[in-house]
Amino acid sequence: MSVPSPSSSPSSAQPPVGSAVVRRAPRLAPDAIIELAHGSGGRAMRTLIEDVFVSAFDNPGLAAMEDQALLGLAALASQGDRLAFTTDSYVVDPLFFPGGDIGTLAVAGTVNDLAVGGARPLYLSCSVVLEEGLPVSTLRRVVESMRRTALAAGVSIVTGDTKVVERGSADKLFINTAGIGVVPHQVSISQAHAQPGDVVVVNGRLGDHGTAILIARNQLSLQSDVASDCQPLNGLVAAMLAACPKIHCLRDATRGGVATVLNEFAHGSNVAIRIRESAIPLREEVKGACEILGLDPLYLANEGKLVAVVPPAAAAAVLAAMRSHPAGEHAAIIGEVGEEPAGIVIMDSVFGGQRVVDMLVGEQLPRIC
Amino acid sequence: MKYMDEFRDPVKAQALSQQIRALVRCIPRARQRPLQIMEVCGGHTHSIFRYGIQQLLPDEVEFIHGPGCPVCVLPMGRVDDCVALAQRPEVIFTTFGDAMRVPGSSKSLLAAKAGGADVRMVYSPLDALQIARANPDREVIFFGLGFETTMPSTAMTVLEAARAGIRNFSLFCNHITIIPTIKAILDSPDMHLDGFLGPGHVSMVIGTRPYRFIAQHYHKPITIAGFEPLDVLHSVWMVLQQLVEGRCEVENQYGRIVPEQGNAQALGAIREVFELREFFEWRGLGSIDHSGVRMRAAYAQYDAERRFPVPNLKIADPRACQCGEVLKGVIKPHECKVFGTACTPQMPLGSLMVSSEGACAAYYNYGRIHGAGAPRRQPAFASAQPGSPA
């Protein structure tokens, strides 16, 4: 099969009968910017989708360019007995930060929401809202991060959508991803399953993402090499479930941090959760930034951290499985589940006192005094 | 951070806790009623709750959480003034983060921001000055609040604006001073305090001498305290030691930061830019003479109160609120009529419920530890003090 070259003479341009013409997809110029036309449904939009998204995500479902992806039921059913389905929208300022960008977040976040339900994440959608004037090169960088993260997580991005809004109507780039996964037969994870005696585990140092974003916004004149912990956790969760299929609760500690997840567990299971401040893994840099700003690392956002509640008999095995996985190298047991006071999270301070670790009422704001 | 850890050593904390128990046994009046030590500064309140310091003290010693959280004592009328300034179309209103949630009579700065006002959170007044440089066609107002701790940096920023000739920057000055407020609390007839923990960072600026009247005229011991948990415990021990020995002095536990004479450069900047107001309105405490500062006429160009119309309405605290009695230690937060019912962290009526370090918000959280199986002892929840309403 030959592709007509631009230098071909008109007489030789006639394609041979029975062979398809392979048309090279039009490419966007390296310095192109997003225009309203890229969302108009016409040729410009098709060029954007083919050149930026289809070529990067590169899978047959997407390349078919249909309005929907078709997923075989038999293959899904062979992996478990329930579908897990989730969606999340991603807005972050700045778009790029040490350790990741909005693209890494958009894939890892949705993969993690599936994984912490015990599901094996399989398929993602990718819907973007672009602000007129966004450099296409910026979009390419983000899409490349999505491609890389999806590859690492073993998921395919099989359908998508693109909208362009006028300059000023959105901040550069918003992404929504939805995801589908399959939950294996014996797995049953819920925030309502914590039982007195259970052990609370985290997979590593807390607050890295929140700190990296604060510092990347450059409002603090602080310098640090703290990078976001943004990463897919499905591999880690698979290893944990292999060590203990009966994990009781599992949740990724994103906005609101570990404190919020613990409160959800305590409330959802009507139990008390008691954690030890001295057991909480933290980087010195994160501790330092929190000291300076009067922030509490328990409430800082993470993008690659989870909290698990496991039966005491399985705690050692789960911890060992976590520590032997790259995403759980610094895993630690941080506390236990008790009966009373039900619905409350209490922390034993490093100093020997105790305090309640409550849900945040609003946004965590730096203290003045 | 290693340096910090030394001041959070649980073994030393236990040893100090034992020594404090031994001291208390030597103070006869502790057998009639708990000894009340007021921590004046919000930073101390924060440490006390964050580290659970109260639980390391015997039942006979309790903290009274004083008026030292500048956000907590901000009157509603001033928040309304902030909102009015922030809603001016030409204005970029800059503020420290935790002032954004304080409710005014109709809304907070956060709500004003959501409604379209250009309100920006900054970490330092110099950030506000930077915003003014970057937006020459806008008026940038910095919401200056806090005690002598934050006053020097605000004063320096005004001096820098004057030096650099930046004309679109001004200060909405709500700085307050600690000494007249302590005096007002000491003059209050329903006060039962036995001693004070003095504010560490304020004292770094003003030194230790301004507190002498507390010891000399009111015969109360005071210890200038650091903010790490061992600092706080050690300072309590020092106050009790004075009580045991019958002394009333100004002692300095925070000597590594606080010089006796204060910081001359910082005091110089404050004196250059600010002068005392005749009185200033405090949330919960009412009007206190000479307890606030305003900008001197020489810096009128940088004074938002002179440059813009400010409603300056006096809005009474909600009638049901007993913030003032809590601030003076007359009642405990949970003894307030609206505590936990009409006033909660989600829907705060009083300012002490607003900030997560406000005494009421802290009690609201802390009280919930008390289920069966939780530690029983909570001296802060001891029976009502004399003088508190039934």
Summarize the SSE layout with pairings.
The complex is a heterodimer of chains A (369) and B (390).
Chain A (H helix, E strand, L loop, with lengths): L42 H15 L2 H4 L9 H5 L4 E9 L5 E2 L2 E2 H14 L4 E12 L4 H18 L2 E10 L7 E11 L15 E4 L5 H9 L17 H10 L5 E4 L4 H13 L2 E5 L7 H10 L12 E5 L4 H9 L8 E7 L6 E4 L5 E3 L13
Parallel strand pairs in A: 4-5, 9-12
Antiparallel strand pairs in A: 1-6, 2-3, 4-6, 7-10, 7-11, 8-10, 9-11, 12-13
Chain B lengths: L1 H5 L3 H15 L10 E7 H10 L9 E8 L7 H11 L4 E5 L13 H6 L4 E3 L3 H10 L4 E8 L4 H14 L4 E7 L2 H10 L7 E4 L1 H7 L5 H5 L5 E3 L4 H17 L4 E3 L11 H10 E3 L2 E4 L3 E4 L3 E3 L8 H4 L15 H5 L31 H8 L24
Parallel strand pairs in B: 1-2, 1-7, 3-4, 3-5, 5-6, 7-8, 8-9
Antiparallel strand pairs in B: 10-13, 11-12
Helix pairs in contact in B: 2-11, 7-12
Any low-confidence stretches of chain B, pLDDT <50, length ≥5? 370-390
CATH architecture of the largest domain in chain A: Alpha-Beta Complex
User: From the helix content, strand content and strand pairing of chain A, which structural class follows?
Assistant: alpha+beta
Given helix and strand content, the structural type of chain B is alpha/beta
In which range does the helix fraction of chain A lie? 25-40%
The fold-level CATH name of chain B is: Rossmann fold
Q: Write down the secondary-structure element order of chain B.
A: HHEHEHEHEHEHEHEHHEHEHEEEEHHH
Q: Which superfamily, in CATH terms, is the homologous superfamily of the largest domain in chain A?
A: PurM-like C-terminal domain
What is the CATH H-level superfamily of chain B? HypD, alpha/beta domain 2
Largest sheet of chain A: 7 strands, mixed
Count of distinct strands of chain A: 13
What share of the residues of chain A does DSSP label as strand, in percent?
15-25%
User: What fraction, in percent, of the residue positions of chain B are helical?
Assistant: 25-40%
